[in-house]
Every structure is written in structure tokens, then in C-alpha cells.
What does this fold into?
Amino acid sequence: MAHRKVYLAVGRTHTRIYRFDPIDGDTRVVDNVAPYDSGYTAMGAQYRGEDKEPLLLAVSGNKLITIDVAAGTLKEQVIDGLPDGPWFDGDMDPDSKSLFVVSNPDTPSYAIDIAAQKATPRNAPGGGRWDDFAYHPKSGRLYSVEGDNGDLLLIDPGRQPMKTVLKEKVFPPAQASSAAGSRKAYSATFFDQDGNFYAVDSAGNVNHLDLTTGKVPDHSQRIGRGRVPVGNLEIMNGAGRITPLPVPPSYDEIAVTKKFNRAWETGEPHGRVYSFDLTLTAVSKDSGTAEDVRKFRISFDLPTVKGAKVEASGVDVIAQDGKAYLNSVGDQFLAAGTSRLITVLITVPGDPARLPQEYPLDGLRATRLPSH
It folds into this structure.
């Protein structure tokens, strides 16, 4: 099971949940889930169906923290046999029944049976500054990254200690955030269903490594020109798995504006069609610097109801798990500072009387894609 977004636990205390799209960098706080003052880490995701948000499970001291991002609830429960921590790495076992969590180098790890609310000790992890791990979706092997030197680690729960170095210096050394006490660690790791591996450090730098085959590349690729936008907070942990897309990840945002044209009712499917003009400008969103654009992507939210679709000329359209991606076809050169207009039609099924007069187009963003 996988979705379009994964989840980040952000903040050492007053921890908040953020949804994060590793493909286009879209990052949003989950407003309906309250902060958890004591802080938690070692988080995993338990998926409950194609169209449902997962349950997130984490630990804080001797408690299991259960976060329902759909309902907006957060509850805690003392777990039989679970020590007081501290805790670092966490992920759900491949059978999605147990949360596997790791503490200090020479102390046991623990498997928490979610149904029985009981923790069972397992082997010690071994030394290093590695703060999250993730199961490969096909091999079932558990991977992590050493923060101090970027080594790719293989974690074998049946081995004592569990950690071995699979390949040295694959990732750049991790950076800490500006928050007090922040660790220089890779604190959030996750896969897509094909086996592409993503690792985010405490400061929000994101790296991608292709582990879809048996060959391990010598070096990961840093995504984008910036960090996951969570201010000066520390990224503590991550959970989830994304569905793969046949497009490269990029967070290099450029300017995009929208102009609503009109809407009309449609009979097949029954609903409304919304027309927008989207204007791309070859200017970096954050710096305001004018730079050439050869390839681009536009993304925005799309309802998950059956029959929802997006149409636009001159771009490839992918609609998946509540997001639409409009990707340029080939080299569509846009000189620095110049603009281009794309007309988009969005079909939303439903009772026309209950649908909005103007579709909100939440999450609208555009990114410059690598041109080589």
C-alpha cells in the first residue's frame, strides 16, 4: 500500500505532523492534528485502504502514540514491556502488525505488537548517528543512512548488532537544523513502491537513491535547491511509502499564477468543468531570479472521486492519489523572465448545486525540471 504523500514528524517538542510529497516538494502541516508537547519519534505508517489516510504510530518514552491524520486524533497508551527510551529509528514491519523501534547503540531494539499493545526485545542496533530506517518494498530489507559520513546501512534484525555498512559515503554528511540540540542525522527515510529510496536530514535536505535493482549506486542525488520548508524546526522522523511516478523529483519552484475563466455543468460524469488559465514565468519563486526553463511541472490538488480528471494541451497529465501533475513534453524552452500560458480544464463529478462555483486549485505550484 502507498499514497502520493509521506509524513514527517517535525519539532523535538510540540511535535507536528506534516504531509510531504517527495516528487514536487509540496509540504503542508496537518492542521487538524494537535501538537504533542512531549515529542515523539520512531514513527511508522499502517495503511488502511487505497482511499484512506494511514494511521501513524510512534513512541514517546514508554508510550505508543497513535495519530489518525484523517480524524485529527492523537492518543497515547503505555506499552507493556517498553522501556522509557530515548528512541530514534522506527518503521512498521512488512506485515504492518508491529512497529519496530530502536534506542541507544548497546540497548535492545523492540517490536511493538500493535494489537496486543506489548513490546518484545530484539537485538541491539550498534553505534552511529542513524535516526530512521525503512523497509524496501520488494526485498524486505531494512535500510538506513549514517549521518556523520553518509554511509548506506543495512539493518538486519536477526544480527547482533543489527547494523552493517553496505556502502561507504553514498550520501553527503547530514546537516542539523538551527533548532537547539538538533542532531546531524538522516532522520526521515522512506521508499516508493519500485524501490527508490529517499532520505531527509534533520535540516530538511532531501536525497534520492535508486535501489530498484540489485546494484547500489556510488552516490545519491540531492533534490532541489532548497530544504523542506519547516522553518528552523528539526525534522525528527518520517513514515510512509509513495506510489512511483515516471517523472524526476524537483523542488526548484518557479512562478505560476492562475486566472479562473468559467465553469459549466457536465452530464458525463455528472458534475462541473472548471476552466483556468495558468501562467508560468521563468523566474525562481523564492529568489526572484530570472532563469531559463526548458522543462517544467505544474501540480495541484485533485479530488479522489471517480471520474475527476484534468485536460490540457502541450503537456502530459498524470492524476494520482489526490494530485494532478502536468509535465512538459520534451524541451519547451522558456527564456529567463518570459511567460507561457496553459489552459487547463478540471472535471469534478458530483451534484453541480453542491460543487463550488470556482474550483479552489489548492496546492498550485510549478517547478523547473532537470534538462539533462
Observations:
- The CA atoms of residues 215 and 222 lie 19 Å apart.
- The chain has two domains: 6-242, 253-368.
